[in-house]
Amino acid sequence: MSRPPKIQKFERRPPATFVLRGVYYAVDWDRMEPGASFFIKTTARATELTPILRTVRRIAGYELRAHNRCEFGYYGVRVWRLS
């Protein structure tokens, strides 16, 4: 079984960037209101995104949740901002 890729650090300048499985994503966390969500088309599991979400919570103070989903025929992860 292969080791999951190393996750690079989260940067808090708008839009904040993170790397998941070698793909860069940019999210403007400050513009997301509670209840908002976004979907990432990826084969990564939500558990691989958890360290990034913990970092966002520590730095920005936002409560976030991620779950694996299949939406419109695409597998991926949906991330919700709860607070």
How does this model look, in words?
This protein is of the alpha+beta class and 83 residues long. It has one domain. The protein contains one helix and five strands; from the N terminus they run E-E-E-H-E-E. The protein has one helix at 46-60, and strands at residues 16-20, 23-27, 37-41, 64-71, 74-81. It has a three-stranded antiparallel sheet with strand order 3-5-4, covered by helices on one side. The chain is globular.
Tell me the domain tally.
1
Backbone shape: globular
The biggest beta sheet reads: 3 strands, antiparallel
Oligomer: single chain
Helix content: 10-25%
Task: Give the C-alpha Rg.
Answer: 12 Å
**End-to-end separation:** 36 Å
Could you tell me the number of beta strands? 5
User: Which secondary-structure class do the elements indicate?
Assistant: alpha+beta
Measured by DSSP, the beta-strand proportion falls in 35-45%
Work out the helix count.
1
Please state the average pLDDT score. Answer: 86
Low-confidence stretches: none
- Helix/strand order, N-terminal first: EEEHEE
Task: Give the spatial strand order of the biggest sheet.
Answer: 3-5-4
